[in-house]
Automatic annotation (TrEMBL):
Listed PANTHER family: MODULATES DNA TOPOLOGY, YALI0E33011P
Transmembrane segments: none
Domain of life: Bacteria
Protein name (Swiss-Prot/TrEMBL): Adenylate kinase
Record Gene3D superfamilies: P-loop containing nucleotide triphosphate hydrolases
InterPro entries assigned to the protein according to its UniProt record, in alphabetical order: Cytidylate_Kinase-2 (IPR052922), P-loop_NTPase (IPR027417)
Length: 204
């Protein structure tokens, strides 16, 4: 089985990044993570479909690659055409929700020390500037609250959409685009992912 151009796809929180890193180490092929490549340097703005295609085109022309992530549909279609190996990670939907929510809560926990420091600064500013500082800080916090609510909404909608709409479309596209020379692997649990890695190690 030739594995030089590998597309790793799947729902959120399924272990795509972890698998790609393991494959990169095992096969000595560079892994590209689209969550990083398809966002601006500050991480707040996603690139347009045209920009995503331009970024991906540079990777597809390389002799070997591991591309992990989703991105615009047109970028996925191109990956399916160029890849010699397509790996789909598809756990039960509830498990994707479990991982996504766990990650979110972990992020909140990590930010706790930062929030405590911000509150200390806020308390100090309040003593220095009085109520005016309180009103100013509250206004500054509103955009942050809106962004957090938007993040929660996306977190709840995305796994459901990917599972019930995107994944069936992906499988249909594979049936149409891929030929006999391409390998399609569907992994439905972490046990299967681990077994797959062990199998590759044994063939090395």
């Amino acid at each position: 089985m030739s594995m030089k151009k590998i597309a790793v796809l799947g729902n959120a929180g399924g272990g795509k990044s972890t698998l790609s890193k393991k494959l990169s180490h095992l096969l000595n092929i560079k892994a590209y993570h689209l969550d990083d490549l398809f966002k601006s340097s500050d991480g707040n703005k996603g690139f347009s479909e045209k920009e995503q295609l331009a970024i991906q085109d540079e990777i597809l022309l390389k002799p070997s690659w591991i591309i992990e992530g989703v991105g615009a549909w047109s970028t996925i279609i191109l990956r399916l055409k160029f890849a010699d190996t397509i790996i789909i990670i598809s756990h039960p939907l509830f498990f994707h929700y479990y991982i996504v929510i766990k990650r979110y809560l972990s992020d909140l926990f990590k930010q706790r020390k930062l929030l405590i420091n911000q509150r200390k600064l806020f308390s100090q500013n309040k003593k220095l500037h009085g109520n005016h500082s309180s009103r100013s800080t509250s206004k500054k916090e509103l955009p942050e609250i809106k962004r957090e609510l938007s993040r929660i909404k996306k977190m709840l909608i995305m796994p459901w959409h990917l599972h019930y709409y995107w994944l069936p479309q992906l499988k249909s596209a594979i049936d149409v685009i891929c030929d006999e020379d391409q390998t399609v692997i569907i992994l439905k649990s972490f046990t299967q992912i681990d077994t797959f890695i062990i199998m590759l190690n044994s063939h090395d």
